[in-house]
Design brief:
MFS_dom, membrane, 450 residues, MFS transporter, mainly alpha, transmembrane, MFS, globular
């Protein structure tokens, strides 16, 4: 289904706001944690506030996409915003860490829909060839919001109270819900199967929850009998989930689509790019502070070149694909550029900060060239009926990769001689090298404009 130019502008404004809300809440709480501990106490349990959101977000992504395909993307997106707003209000009223963590868990369930469904909505309203230009700015919004989250969280905490981090979502969420009802096309209600894949949703949620909890525990306490046992249990549950989804009549996560070479390679590219980019982003501020002996503010500001590169990359590749239809050169060039930048960061030592900033910008630019294209290509290969599930699957794979990658990179830093961060950049370079191979294997075909 297509929309008019005016309708697309309204749709774009709506999805920008929704995407920003979902992306901000992944990082906005980090800088407020000291203030939360001061007011609510329980420093040993404050990590629950962050872990609960990440756990719910990752676990709910497959279900959010599948529910959108079954009941309509507009309806499920509006419901997701409602859950997100109500739980945000509850977060702001929290009187102890336990209540705040529970409210954050509910907020993450709504946040999953905010991050997955906008891209699925675009798949139903915009032809594939034009979709890259439409999704490019949304990818830029996600990148900017992710980096701006800690800065905004710290500013609100210093200016007023950490509670305003959550209360700010109430008016913004209300505006987003109104825009969804006005601007998002209702579309034809999909032909719903007889039963929703509840078993698959539960198994996938359990596997995702185990993944988040195990990686968090390993990062805090290392490997020991309890974490090894938990990791083994998570692997068993994940295997059971995949086995179930392969034979389910209408699976939450259509793993059989991985038989399609294009969908599989796009998932692998999303995984490689997620680990490579977000693994570097997680450690750049600390690396700059420790190696260059700068302030925390300067360390945070070094994320801005990465963000600027991503913004330039997603928009340049999106508009180029809309004009010419050819998309395959961008993943190939993007992985080569990001991989080269990461390799240079691993080997330069204490280069001047302007050189570091330039290399980080190139890393962001390379990733931006393909991060949204792989979504459109996978949606096109998976078909309109599965747009939500395919989009959710890509997001799920990327988030799982980021979670595991952060834990692995943290372990590498801890074991490196002299606290060197070179292993972080070297690992990112290897991820992009793998992505380069996946990109070369992608079929060379054009996206259609109808």
């Amino acid at each position: 289904m297509s929309t008019t130019a005016t309708g697309r502008r309204a749709l774009f404004a709506c999805l920008v706001l929704v995407t920003a809300l979902g992306a901000l809440d992944q990082t906005i709480v980090a800088t407020a944690l000291p203030a939360i501990v001061t007011e609510l106490g329980a420093p040993s349990r404050v990590s629950w506030v962050v872990t609960a959101y990440a756990l719910a977000l990752t676990a709910a992504m497959p279900a959010a996409g599948a529910l959108g395909d079954r009941f309509g993307h507009r309806r499920v997106l509006a419901l997701s915003i409602g859950v997100f707003v109500i739980s945000s209000g509850a977060c702001g009223l929290a009187g102890n860490v336990e209540f705040l963590a529970a409210a954050r868990l509910a907020q993450g369930l709504g946040g999953a829909g905010l991050l997955v469904l906008p891209q699925a909505v675009v798949a139903g309203a915009v032809p594939a060839r034009e979709r890259t230009a439409f999704l490019g700015p949304l990818g830029a919004v996600y990148a900017v919001a992710t980096v701006a989250g800690p800065l905004l969280g710290g500013w609100l905490t210093d200016l007023a109270s950490w509670r305003w981090i959550f209360w700010l979502n109430l008016p913004l969420g209300a505006a987003a819900a109104a825009l969804v009802l006005v601007a998002v096309p209702a579309g034809r209600r999909p032909d719903a199967p007889a039963r929703f894949d509840t078993t698959g949703a539960v198994l996938l949620a359990a596997a995702a929850s185990g993944l988040v909890l195990v990686t968090t525990a390993v990062a805090e306490t290392g490997w020991h009998a309890a974490t090894v046992t938990a990791a083994a249990g998570t692997a068993v549950v994940a295997a059971a989930a995949l086995a179930w989804e392969r034979r389910a009549a209408d699976p939450v996560l259509p793993v059989t689509l991985a038989r399609d070479r294009t969908v599989l390679l796009c998932c692998l590219l999303a995984l490689a790019g997620g680990i490579g980019l977000f693994g570097v982003l997680a450690y750049v501020p600390t690396w700059v502070q420790e190696v260059y002996r700068t302030s925390a503010t300067t360390g945070g500001l070094l994320l801005l070149p990465v963000t600027a590169g991503i913004v330039a990359g997603v928009n340049a590749s999106g508009f180029a694909v809309r004009r010419w239809g050819a998309w395959r050169p961008f993943p190939v060039a993007g992985c080569a550029l990001s991989g080269g930048a990461a390799a240079a960061l691993a080997s330069i030592g204490e280069a001047p900060l302007p050189v570091v900033a330039a290399l980080l910008a190139l890393l962001g630019l390379g990733t931006g060239l393909f991060m949204q294209i792989v979504v459109v290509v996978a949606q096109d290969a998976g078909g309109a009926r599965r747009a939500g599930a395919v989009t959710a699957g890509l997001a799920f794979v990327r988030e799982a990769g980021v979670t595991v990658g952060a834990a692995v990179l943290g372990a590498l830093v801890a074991r490196a001689a002299g606290g060197s961060y070179a292993p972080v950049f070297a690992t990112a370079a290897m991820c992009f090298a793998a992505g380069f191979a996946y990109a070369l294997a992608l079929p060379d075909r054009r996206l259609e404009s109808e």
